[in-house]
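Hello forum,

I keep getting stuck at the same step: I have a sequence, I want structure tokens, and every attempt I make locally crashes halfway through. Rather than fight my setup again tonight, could one of you with a working pipeline run this one for me? It's a single chain of 452 residues.
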Amino acid sequence: MLTLSSLGGAGTVTGSKHLLSHDGRRILIDCGLFQGLKNLRELNWAQLPVEASSIDAVILTHAHLDHSGYLPKLVRDGFRGPIFATAATKDVSELILMDSAHLQEKDAEYANRKGYSKHKPALALYGVADAERALSQFRPVSFDKPVKLPGGATATYRHAGHILGAATVDIEWAGRRVVFSGDLGRYDDPMLPDPVAVPEADYVIVESTYGNRVHEAGDPTEMLRAIIERTVRRGGTLLIPAFAVGRAQSMLYHLWKLKTAGRLPDVPVFLDSPMAIDATELLHTHSADHRLPPEVCDDICAVATYTRDVEGSKAITASRYPKIVISASGMATGGRVLHHLKADAPSPKNTILFGGFQAAGTRGRALVQGAQEIKIHGEWIPVRAEIAELPMLSAHADSNELMRWLSGFRKRPNRVFIVHGEDEASEALRVRIDRELGWEATTPRQDQVFEL
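Reply #2:
Ran it on my machine without issues. Output:
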């Protein structure tokens, strides 16, 4: 008997972990970190309902922290099996997991030194050594070529768009064909390939981040120009919290378009995120996984001044001259962007621009919902800066695009499971699937077990 249970990513957009089990063997699809609301973050410290050592393999759809960030903890707890991922996902995961481990160690040390944590002492969920062990267990796979998994299963990876290396995964096991969407990207994205249609499946597990929304139409490059110009006229700084992998490169692309057209105001542009810098450079390494010609990659990478060292980052923060700063993390949950927010949020001259989904419980969500102050490093910071959004720059497919991908199946699956979405978004997508496709769709609860 083949069973499916969601150990994360059920009723929330974070912590994606979906477990397939058959005849005593277990395969985990994605292994993400919970982020956002405190009650979700606390789940990172809870024991999984299965022993880590009992999992035979992990299938990684892509490298974002909410899909990969629990891997070092899984390894720390005893997982010793292979981690299958595309070559680009392997490289991006190295950046993300090492950065996550470093930040967790650093945040624990900072909290202990400043004394603002309720935990005595504050501890890191995992450390750099755990991330290194996890990375040693990666096994790179190719797109569109079946790979054998433990227990007699096979998996086929197909392009999903979203970020570099992202894939949907088609798993055949125990006479069943189960397809996981991972996170689907946008159609007609200027940088990344369209999500590839999958011909058939017995069961589909689909994300629903934007299951209740359609992205606003309009030219994001032109909208970005307008935001830059009004900020510069005020003598302010445009701060862009951006995911180091995906949004940072997209922002550089649109800035490059403005510069090429002679429409970018004459202010310095900084990419202040070592991980985003490294991720941008991976565009050259994995040129087959995106649409950009090599010469365009060169030009995009040259738009910004890269800042790797801490002193350089502090100099950017201290400067009161108009400028554009792209810094991670994209939901303002950690990283260097927090120091920029502390400096820039209190001034009405400045603008803070979000271009991606902001999960519940994050500073990003609070800001786009109009928070008048935010807490950073134990200190409440007033927010007087303009808060702007460009939701069409999201790396996630919207409701129409999710339906477009689902419509690519040539025959009706037995059931669709809707995951990786807040309750309203998942329910809206379930209703659309029922109304427009006539398919049975279910929104799983955390740890609920289904027989396939």
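The chain has two domains: 2-213+395-451, 220-393. If your local run keeps crashing, start a new thread with the error log.
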